[in-house]
Amino acid sequence: MQRFDFITMLLSPATWFVFAFGCLFGSFFNVCIYRIPRGIFWKTSRSHCPACSLSIPSWHNIPVFSWIFLRGKAACCGAKISIQYPLVELGTAVLWVTVYWCFPFIFRLDGTLVLNSAELLRFAHALVFSSVLLICSVIDLEHQIIPDALSLPMIALSPIVAWFHPELDLKSSIIGIFLGGGLFYAVAWIYFLVRKQYGLGLGDVKLLAAIGGWLGYQAVATTIMWASLVGSVIGITFILISRQKNFQLKIPFGPFLSGAAVVYLLFGRHLVDYLFPF
């Protein structure tokens, strides 16, 4: 297993180029997070203040820095700006850099920059996949929904993704869609028959189907296992800390599914090499 040179990658101009573009796209992701669940994505082009509806100048939309300079308050009316905005921008930048470090498609060979086309496809696949799941996660945390506008196109595009990806094949992708969606739909239906209430949203079903389509059926079981484990630990911890007597706590499951899937995609092969070195 090739040793990762952290210092070299950190000092690489490509890393900071990806970081800067991650911040910019993080600002756009904030727009998606705000507009998609409210059904206004195409109704307005300019960003506006949610409190007073005045248009926001472009120099107040600089990722991260604008929030710091404005001290978390809107310049137009003084309304508080959620810290979610700079966190999403920074989180996107860090996520994009991590994806690049996992799939570095540009490297220097004998003083010449070389482009690895196969690694570029892996990078693009991971970048789009993790970015959409980031948007889904924040929306799910805020509204406890996963919009069909995000999950259904991912499912529909799965065959095209499988066609271009160097490792993923069409059969694995299609099986992943039906296995991921089918397993969660069965669990949701059984839970409803037993408890007469919904314990798992259909948004989670569609999201796991999309994950199976983009990563293959091999990722489905691992994603469910780690998402369930981490989600259970966090849920129980929250109940104990808050001392709630009602154990029917509603915690959005989408972020745990998304996190487990992204970790599987970026680090799954490294974990296998580490756990099974022989």
Report on this model:
With 278 residues, the protein is mainly alpha-helical. Helix content is 66%, strand content 3%. It is built from ten helices and two strands. It has helices at residues 6-11, 13-35, 65-69, 84-102, 117-143, 148-164, 170-195, 202-215, 218-242, 254-275, and strands at 106-109, 112-115. Strands 1-2 form a two-stranded antiparallel ribbon. α5 packs antiparallel against α6, α6 (148-164) packs antiparallel against α7 (170-195) and α7 (170-195) runs antiparallel to α8 (202-215). It is globular and about 50 Å long. The N and C termini lie close together (11 Å). Mean pLDDT is 86; it is low at 274-278.
Topology:
Layout: H1 6-11, H2 13-35, H3 65-69, H4 84-102, E1 106-109, E2 112-115, H5 117-143, H6 148-164, H7 170-195, H8 202-215, H9 218-242, H10 254-275
Antiparallel strand pairs: 1-2
- Structural class of the helices, strands and pairings? mainly alpha
Q: Which spans have pLDDT < 50 for at least 5 consecutive residues?
A: 274-278
* Major sheet: arrangement of strands: 1-2
**Quick one: how many beta strands?**
2
Q: Which bin fits the share of residues in helices?
A: 55-70%
- Helical stretch tally: 10
Shape: globular
Q: What is the gyration radius calculated from CA atoms?
A: 21 Å
* Terminal Cα span: 11 Å
DSSP strand content: under 5%
Order of helices and strands: HHHHEEHHHHHH
Q: Quick one: biggest sheet?
A: 2 strands, antiparallel
Q: Name the average pLDDT.
A: 86
